[in-house]
Design goal:
Shape: globular
CATH architecture of one domain: Alpha Horseshoe
Strand order of the largest sheet: 1-5
CATH class of one domain: Mainly Alpha
Largest sheet: 2 strands, antiparallel
Distance between the termini: 90 Å
Strand content: under 5%
Mean pLDDT: 92
Oligomer: single chain
Amino acid sequence: MKKQVVLIIALSFLMATGCTDDFEALNTNPNFPSSAQPELLLPGIQREMAYNWGDQGWEEGFTVVQYGARLQFTSGDTYNWSPSGDPYNNAYASLRDVENIIRGTQENPEAQNYYGVALVMKSWIYSYLTDAYGDVPYLEAIQGISEGNVTPVFTPQEQIYEGLLADLETANTVLAGTANITGDIFYGGDILKWQKFANSLRLRLLMRISDVDNATAVAGMAQITGNPGDFPIFENNEDMAVVQWNSDNPQPKFNTRSGSFDEVRLSQTLETRLKALNDNRLVVFAQPTSASGKGIYSDDVNDYVGMPNGLDDEAALGYSPSGNPDESGSNFISRLGILLACRACNPEQASPTASQTIIMSYSELQFILAEARERGYISVGDAATYYENGIRASFQYYTDRVAVGGWTEIANAMASTDLDAYLAQPTVALTGTGDERLSKIALQKWISLFYTGFEGWSDWRRTSMPEVIPGPDNANDGQVPVRFQYPNSVKATNEANYNAAVQRQGADNINTKMWWDVD
């Protein structure tokens, strides 16, 4: 009997010890790793969000502020918008991985550069997300696996911006030392360039809120521009935030159907504005009409023809630039430029790598600084110098990219542009009244933001410049949309918090303005 008791006690002890040893393994959720490998997560986040940013640039980014117009399937161009799952779903899918990087690196002194990069990525993605919808889950977001919160509250946009600006300031501080990160397809692990992106992006967001929280905007801009040693910003085109695609991962439009590419054509708005400025970027942004027989380049600007925005399907397909019904349809309207073309559209000439996806350009930064100086938000530098830098940088960027594509005639046309003469034109030179100068800055910034996500739309919402005139068949009572509607899935799965956001922010329709849109 004593032997049986001893045996039972011994077995109990072993079982208890074994259970204790295995407790952590048995109670670890394999779908929520306690640590993540940032070098494996980072490139996927960057690639996925760059594709999404490019897709939105092709759709609403092109049509709503009239770089391109829809020849077919024109509902987006006529503002007949439905609730949109993009960028909402893609953004939160990527933000989960961003948060995994942050959790695994924030307290690790050897991984601070990954932490800083993750903060920059988080700030860019959330700014993209909130500028699409307004209030979105932020403070309680990404807690479904870690804390079981699958119905997060929507954070007011003002608080989201406070968080993003604080994170970018933190990122600038923690990004330091040698390049010790891998998997980075934005900058190849160059930490100084990440610092520059953090501060340049912060200037973008500070300008965004300058009409609604001017004190914060001015203080932040002064901090950055007054101390370039501690707050470096983009200094040239080599610093800009872009994704360089390769043959295995080509530029987003390279593998699309020719029909999908051809649905979007040159907008008459972009055509007329560039021609009025004698602006050679027209030959990059568009191709000559098929009817001209000139291929991908012509030295006659009359061979580049746009179409009006906001036509319904029937009117768009029947549109004739000359008014002659025998000269209507796709052969008489310019495609968008060869830089963006699909290989099915131009089998011998399209490039998988010449077009980069621009997240933020040096040119955009210079126009931000030009406006800030013109408005008196900063005291450093000269508005005209920033403005001219922005124009020159845009021309140089596109000259370089068409050269990479091997399109010699287009590259030569761009390289031969007399920029001094271009800048001296009365319609370009930064002269006139304060309002006239701001209007010129806005116009040149708009041109430079071609195919930069929907940043052109965001800047137009803030400034109402340059003018956007809804097309004749618009379905929104003559109003230009100022936001996306929340996805239907959000209404179905997070109804109480969705309703609270709508009550606070305003109706869930495309005419409810952003917090920062007070123009």
